[in-house]
Amino acid sequence: MKTPFLTPSLMRQLPLAVISGLVIAASGFFSTSVHIPFLINILCSAGLGWLQPQKGWLLALVQLGAIIGGYFLIHAGELLPTDQPDVARFAMYLAAIPTFAGSFMGGFLKRAFLKEK
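^ thats the sequence. predicted structure below, dont judge the formating
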């Protein structure tokens, strides 16, 4: 019997992807360089990949959408004033790379650890 694509565990983890995306978007407004938002992005994405090794790409897409949407909401609403708006913009434009790389790494590591046992 084929398992459904949207499992209950995946549905429970979708809000986690949205929250982590909003945290990553907000971190770009607080930071003075792009290193902190990228570090937070890679760690959150690796965690999402670890939670869903087979469907981590879907969580990465949701997280990327939350990063982009969160950036535009914060920027348009002027919710978080920043001294360096270029850092937040640059971190948002390049967010896809660490998001998908981190999700792949987390899923790969979980599959590798499960195969060992």
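The chain has one domain: 26-116.
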